[in-house]
Amino acid sequence: MKKLIAAVATVSMMLVFLVACNTNGTVSVSLAEVTRSLFYAPQYVALEKGFFEEEGLDVELQTTWGGDTTMTALLSDGADIALVGSETSIYVYAQDSRDYAINFAQLTQTDGTFLVSKEPRPDFNWEDLKNSNFLGQRVGGMPQMVGEFVLKKHGIDPHRDLNLSQNVDFANIPSAFSSGDYEYVQLFEPTASVFEKEGTGHIVASFGEESGKVPYTVFMAKQSFLNENEETVQKFTNAVYKAQQWVQEHSAEEIAEVIHPYFEDTEIDMLAASIDRYKQQGSFAEDPVLDEEEWENLKDIMDEAGELPTDVPYEELVNTKFAEEVLSN
């Protein structure tokens, strides 16, 4: 995030997407997702089931691969709306941005990573991690901060009690774990289940269950965009809520069938198993409201990791107007 402002200027000159009306009367919205993840299943349901189209929106999805690049795209008008960890809005706010990012609709409400061991550990205990070779996530990102929060909760100092590595890019973490001498790693689905099926790794714990509810992945937009496009944002939030309800009401197998086009390299039964794991631990938010208790938990996790740049009040970066409107109707 420290290089964010400079990067914004560069991207601004490269690419600009603006909300515009198409000839058929629909409104175009560019959406940037921080990564392609099964964790975002409700978003893909909204796209595939036509919920955005029902609201008169033509949503163009782009994957921007990483928190820094996603926020750069958003702040430079390279995207109208971003799906990214809510911690990024705090980083931007702390840089004294005049038009900062506002969280308006929550998609996931727990951490989405699982602790994976290279060897079977049927009687796993958190103490087993001490002195192990642990492949961690990027410094300052939610997976790493939640990981540290959970480890400390179990009396483990990740920087003293582990042989912690954090020098591998997010996209390369799975291959680095399988080919390296690491004993433990944090992985998202479906990678964790794929590793377990192949015998490459074994899921021994869930960071989502251990850390409690947190606004892990949220739709956000610049304050100016919210002010100037209230109707569009409301329609977008309506579609998200339709998808959230659909996910709650349908089986993991049905969800997997719908979103399979976004994960063509993964078998449907594996997608279903991963989705079921997320559904069982309540990872998918049931509605788009980001409540204050979750926001405070986020700040506690960031503070514990030494990554909270400033204590941002809930009312400053969270706008629940659109989410509450869709619930009231």
Automatic annotation (TrEMBL):
Cellular compartment(s): Periplasm
Protein family according to the UniProt entry: Belongs to the bacterial solute-binding protein SsuA/TauA family.
Signal sequence bounds: 1-22
Keyword tags: Signal
Protein name: ABC transporter substrate-binding protein
Superkingdom classification of source: Bacteria
Predominant subcellular localization, coarse grouping: periplasm
Keyword presence, Signal: yes
